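Closing statement on the adenosine-3',5'-cyclic-monophosphate sub-project.
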Amino acid sequence: STERTLVLLKPDAVQRSLRGEIIRRIEAKGYDIVALSQRTATKEELAAHYAEHEGKPFYDPLVTYMAGGPIVALVAEGENVIKGFRSLAGGTNPTEAAPGTIRGDLGREWDAPVIQNLVHGSDSVESADREIGIWFPNL
Ligand code: CMP
């Protein structure tokens, strides 16, 4: 069925001027972008977004990374887009992510305390609803 998913272009994607390349792949796949905004995430937004990771060893570095520069938040819509965007994004670790994916083609590991992997995509309908509410409360 038609779904919406929350995508974040993380600070490394914006810093490396990969916005266009990543958005091109989303559009070329046939998904529609129904909302889009660039801003610097607040600690409150990030605490809400990453609540499930609180207490993990990479939580503080993750929040510091995500607050370290502007991000682009967008909502993509389409048939099975939640699974489809995660397929486009590739695996969490960009060294291991398959070629052809956003992370596999554009990412690699850097000497950083957290894995920097260019994009986030919601992992379920429940997560998408919750995350869209955090980043686009008026949608
Ligand atoms: P993502 O899967 O979008 O959301 C959680 C993020 O935490 C993940 O991307 C990485 O940026 C980071 N992350 C997840 N697991 C690890 C890990 N084992 N070590 C370092 N960073 C991680």
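Helices lie at 11-15, 19-28, 43-49, 59-66, 81-89, 102-106, 125-135. With this model delivered, the sub-project is considered complete and its resources will be redirected to Aim 3.
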